[in-house]
Design goal:
By secondary structure, the chain is an alpha/beta fold. It has helices spanning 41-47, 77-83, 103-116, 130-140, 155-165, 190-207, 228-232, 279-284, 331-345, 370-381, 408-417, 427-432, 447-455, 457-460, and strands at 6-11, 17-18, 34-39, 71-72, 87-88, 92-97, 121-125, 147-151, 169-173, 210-215, 235-240, 247-255, 263-269, 272-275, 294-301, 304-316, 324-327, 352-358, 390-392, 395-396, 402-403, 422-426, 440-444. The protein has a 9-stranded mixed beta sheet. A 7-stranded mixed beta sheet has the order 17-18-16-15-19-22-23. Helix 4 (130-140) links the parallel strand 7 and strand 8. The protein is globular and about 75 Å long.
């Protein structure tokens, strides 16, 4: 062991510190999350001394200015939506995502837009050389001179450059490559990530500089490093998508300055990321016509309704244990809904393989798509073709009842705007809706009525 260094164990999930290894973390109660690191205790304690010349002075609550914070537009409407209207001055924002998903490309395009709007932007990379960044930038387009690049990993040197240059926006790519010499552990370790984030937070709040921080993700899909990393920053954004799909989804999971349910959709092209302003039309492109096992549902992502196609394939199984596969929805939810259909409708599914997919690769967790899953399975099992101009939404309970969902009116209006003529929805939502012209509303109370609605539509339609 190096002289002056102490072996300390840190929890990778919450950052809990212990002098010995423990199987379960006392802080977050997770198992097998402790890792050993060599930490220079003397240097850390000396860096935390309070300068006698600097005194903390509290101020009255009435003296704090509560005027609306001026936001800076990123030049990308989808990103502005997720951020709550734009970049807040002095905000520390974390962007996570799988390797190669497009995090650096997205932030480089944001830097280009900000620089073209006369903002001074500093892009700091610890993973790429300046030549590599230039090669990627040339694919995106021309960059003005008020965007400057820096390839450095020493956070003390980076802090000196930021304090001297005083840019309006800073991008750190990535936080796992940054290190402080005072912390004895290796870059990317729990203590280095925590200390580096604390320094960046002091810079952002002290100088009023907006900072984007790129974070690597683990196999579980969370940002690598201590869980306290997400607690320290103001905004946490996850960039999602499949390697074989061209679309990308930017999802806000934490935002102190806006909603946490908004998403932004992008398409990866040769020239970079392109905004998808109408996700519903994009997700429904290529939908088959006149085929059973296909139905369109409406899901809400924040305040935005998105229309998706749910596909189901039900066929006889030749195995003792029928195969169940779900893509884009929770596997356990699929098994639950199939059990409801067997019990409440007498639909024989125990000897059938079932495959349910949300076309386009998007993942949805909202219960409002339950009715779409149920109707898609019924449609394929009974070989019933659901009308191409029919849409549905609703939550299905264990008793087979179709329960109400929020924002029903916004869902119906979005369906009408995209040319749908019929909507199957919970009866409770129909009773609470105002008059909607141009679309027929079919209220259902349970899965039995929902099945009847797709087989005998002409007898159950309700014109509201």
């Amino acid at each position: 062991m190096a002289k002056g260094k102490t072996s300390v164990y840190f929890c990778q999930n919450c950052g809990y510190e212990s002098s010995k290894w423990m199987g379960q973390c006392p802080g977050c109660k997770e198992w097998n999350t402790f890792v050993e690191e060599l930490v220079d205790k003397k240097s850390i304690s000396s860096s935390g001394r309070i300068d006698s010349a600097k005194r903390a002075e509290p101020i009255p609550l009435s003296a704090i200015d509560t005027t609306e914070e001026v936001r800076m537009s990123t030049g990308m409407k989808e990103l502005d939506r997720v951020l709550g209207g734009g970049i807040v001055k002095g905000a520390l924002m974390l962007v996570g995502g799988d390797p190669g998903i497009g995090k650096s490309t997205l932030l480089l395009q944001v830097c280009r837009n900000l620089a073209q709007a006369s903002a001074y932007v500093l892009y700091i990379s610890g993973e790429e050389s300046l030549q590599q960044i230039k090669m990627r930038a040339e694919r995106i387009g021309a960059f003005p001179d008020n965007l400057e690049l820096l390839s450095e990993t020493n956070l003390d040197l980076i802090r000196e450059v930021i304090e001297r240059k005083k840019p309006q926006v800073v991008v750190i790519d990535s936080i796992q490559t940054m290190y402080r010499e005072e912390v004895g552990s290796a870059p990317g370790s729990v203590s280095q990530v925590r200390e580096s984030t604390a320094v960046l937070m002091q810079i952002a709040k002290g100088l009023g500089i907006s900072i984007f921080v790129v974070g690597h993700v683990t196999r579980e899909g969370t940002v690598a490093g201590p869980r306290t990393l997400e607690h320290m920053v103001d905004t946490v954004l996850y960039f999602e998508g499949e390697n074989h799909e061209s679309y990308r989804i930017l999802r806000g999971v934490k935002n102190r300055f806006g909603s946490t349910n908004e998403i932004g959709m992008f398409e990866m092209r040769t020239e970079g990321l392109v905004e998808v302003e109408n996700p519903s039309e994009f997700m429904l492109s290529g939908k088959p016509e006149g085929e059973s096992g296909s139905v369109v549902v409406c899901s809400m992502e924040g305040t935005r309704p998105i229309l998706l196609e749910i596909q189901a394939l039900v066929c006889h199984s030749f195995f003792n244990n029928p195969r169940r596969t779900s893509t884009g929805i929770d596997f356990n939810r699929l098994n639950l809904l199939m059990a409801v259909l067997e019990k409440r409708l007498g639909l024989s599914l125990s000897d059938c393989d079932a495959y349910v997919n949300i076309a386009g690769g998007i993942r949805i967790t909202e219960p409002a798509v339950d009715l779409g899953i149920v109707l898609a399975i019924i449609s394929c099992k009974k070989d019933i073709v659901i009308d191409d101009h029919t849409i549905c939404f609703g939550e299905v309970g264990l008793s087979g009842e179709v329960r109400a969902v929020n924002m029903a009116e916004q869902r119906v209006l979005e369906a009408r705007k995209l040319g749908f003529h019929r909507c199957i929805l919970p009866q409770v939502c129909v009773e609470n809706l105002k008059r909607v012209d141009g679309i027929e509303l079919i209220g259902v109370r349970n899965v039995s009525e929902a099945m009847y609605a797709i087989t005998k539509t002409e007898k159950t339609e309700m014109n509201i």
